[in-house]
User: Fold this.
Amino acid sequence: MLQYLEGPSPIVFAGQRQIDTLQSSYAARGYGMLFYALARVLRPLQAVEIGIYQGFSLLSIAAALRDNGVGRITGYDLFESYPYRHADRDDVCRRVEAMGLEPWVSVDAGDALRIHERWDAVDYLHVDVSNTGDTYRRMFSQWSTKVRQVIVLEGGSPERDRVRWMIDYDKPPIVPAVHELRLAHPGWSFTVLQPFPSVTIACNRNAMGAVGP
Ligand SMILES: C[S@@+](CC[C@H](N)C(=O)[O-])C[C@H]1O[C@@H](n2cnc3c(N)ncnc32)[C@H](O)[C@@H]1O
Assistant:
């Protein structure tokens, strides 16, 4: 899998070409393939994504659920309430429809900090909301008892901690947050994939056997 993150990804699933044209920091390194493969392997029944933008990761996971024949992903975003580069809800919904992925995807508005209140349990959580170290800490305190399989978070490498906006706005870095979470959550294993923008995959050791059909 890692070799795909170092070069152009081969086309392996229907719709991948459309997804690869979307703007996303994930696109250049083939992370869409990673999200697709993770969801194919884990077969999550309930997946949640927080931070949609144009839908690159949302649609990659939705394509895997389609190919699994089971599961649903609900994507949340602040849409126009987010003052910086944000998702356009109608555009995302049109894209979902054009790819025939409506049976596998819901799109809803919501603030990252409140979405855990809507869910008792999910299998797969992906968080990509201009993450900082504090995003990681908050998401783990809110979700670690609710997520059965994996929590995937954008970022985690030293290079990602040094991006301009993290430095200029004095944002808390992610690397020390991952270190803290490793110590605080022995029931979770943490793997950081380094190719930029980097991705942290936290696996729930206790429940990795409890995947969908
Ligand atoms: C980096 S983009 C997401 C990229 C997307 N996951 C992809 O695959 O390309 C970040 C998104 O998070 C949204 N966002 C930022 N802060 C948020 C918050 N507190 N709650 C929900 N969404 C938020 C923004 O509107 C934006 O669409």
In short: Residues 2-204 form a domain with the Rossmann fold fold (CATH 3.40.50.150). The mean pLDDT is 93. Residues 24, 26, 50-53, 56-57, 76-78, 82, 86-87, 111-112, 128-130 surround S-adenosylmethionine (CB under 6 Å). Residues 56-68 form the longest helix (13 residues).
